[in-house]
Amino acid sequence: MASVMDPCSFASLSKCTTKHLNLVFHVDFDRRVIKGKVSLTLEVLEDKLSCLTLDTKDLTITKVIANGQVASFSVGTKHSFNGTPLEIQLPLELFRGQHVIVEVTYETSPRASSLQWLTPEQTAGKKQPYLFSQCQATHCRSMIPCQDGPSVKHTYYAQVSVPKELVAVMGALHDGQEADPQDNSRTIYRFRQTVPIPSYLIALVVGAVESREIGPRSRVWSEKELVDQAAYEFAETETMLKTAENLVGPYVWGQYDILLLPPSFPYAGMENPCLTYTTPTLLVIAHEISHSWTGNLVTIKNWEHFWLNEGHTVYLERMIARCLESEQFRQFKAIGGWKEMQEAVNMFGETNPLTNLVPCLNEVDTDQAFSCIPYEKGFAFLYHLEELLGGPEVFMGFIKSYIQLFAYSSISTDEWKDHLYTYFKDKVEILNKVDWNGWMHTPGMPPVKNRYDTTLADVCITLCQRWVQANEADLASFNEADVKNLSSPQLIEFLALLLHEKPIPLSHVKRMQEVYNLNAIKNAEIRFRWLRVCLRAKWEEAVPLAFKMATEQGRLKFTRPLFRELHGFEKFRQETVSVFLKHRACMHPVAVALVSKDLNVDQPQSKAA
Ligand SMILES: CC/C=C\C/C=C\C[C@@H](O)/C=C/C=C/C=C\[C@@H](O)CCCC(=O)O
Ligand SMILES: [Zn+2]
Q1: What sections of the protein cross the membrane (predicted)?
Q2: What is the CATH architecture of 458-599?
Q3: Is the pTM higher than 0.95?
């Protein structure tokens, strides 16, 4: 039975809460498992506590000790996606305010959904294996038995034993390393995270990685083949950090490192504290830096309030863009975001409750529920409030106050709304006119269509309409000058606009390639949209290019729609399934699960119980 407080966790969140984790990991690349021992320091929240439940997923539990005494335990019924509850009988009865240290010895599964194990061939260096974790939203439980919900925040100390040819990095401060006293072919790396964090922000990477300094509190990490290029690409990190601090206050995490992951990583980035993950396809990190305040400092009570993390982070990310670029650029990004929201609503269906800003997640797989809706409907809602309440400077005052009030805690949408009313106590009449139910608890597009400044978008709109309205005789009128002065974001917007129209004819697509040579563009955001324009026009020459992009990188934002479009191209439906089945051993476990469902093929069986 899921916790009353959190529909995505079995943990007994009301009985006790985790204050600290001590982690001992032994990373075994031969067996693709982590042999672990976690000591949870739990604060008792109610009298006469004699048992408690932790979240696990595909873990093999061998021993549980509570305050130094052996504790009996039982593994509950395996849920189809939320893992398996671990019920622990305490050898002593505890009372509110007391603490208990529960030590669990266990081993992960080779198919742990939080871990991707890469062969040397899947890395840039081709010589050493690679491991990375991705815990958001509910996958930490496949790496650590824990209270795997964002309402619980704890510090942690970790020691990680790895083969001495490899380096371990975590989303925490480094605390030294030494030869493993039990095996001189291995090294132990130590880490401490002294700011309380939710379990989804625990991050571990093990590989042949090295780093370069890119600022007074920042290093960039990657395989050596990529690290100098990455240091160049992320040279502006300190400028962005300072811009964010000027907007919302001090950065409390100490170090801000960036780790460039192999291209199989299924997301644009991940805001692990002290160690932002990013991918070779995404070099803009304003979003992940902003999470240092919204999401990592002010966290959500459970995943139904995910929009608080992402909506505020996108709002902050675009405020950084306003500072470093212009207000017109912020408006331009907002226009692009609105279209991405429209696309997500179209994909889910406009009556699908997963398009609610605050969805109900009872018996819902968060990976299946994930989309840009919390990001873009969240941003659009905050922008709507900004317009009603006095503009960007006024609303940033609220954002800063929201962060100061709720820092180090986990909150719900109601708590956010209460503070909004308190902060704008002299504008309650305006707030009372907001369509709260329409924005928060109604599926589909927002009840109000924000009006954004189209200065930077107009040229994209005009060019798109020229192609949409062109007949065969007009095709000669197009030439490379049409796009010569377009920035990459404007080229992305032009292609995104085309994707919101009926598919243009094959003759048009061929002419577009002839005059714009879009096949030659490597920028993933451009390439992704261009290939979808080609597939919708049924251009068969684009099919191998789409298979290449869908398999050479693993970002779900690109991989899923490309596989879906290829699967929708009747003539290539079978080939699409066979390409996926051939490639899935190299894919991240979450990506395998999601694309399997999209293509309606069976998933490989995960470990029993
Ligand atoms: C309503 C949905 C509730 C919870 C979903 C939360 C997480 C879902 C899980 O699949 C993990 C998502 C990780 C996202 C990581 C980074 C994002 O900021 C960017 C992802 C999209 C992209 O690649 O651009
Ligand atoms: Zn985010």
Answers
A1: none
A2: Alpha Horseshoe (1.25)
A3: yes
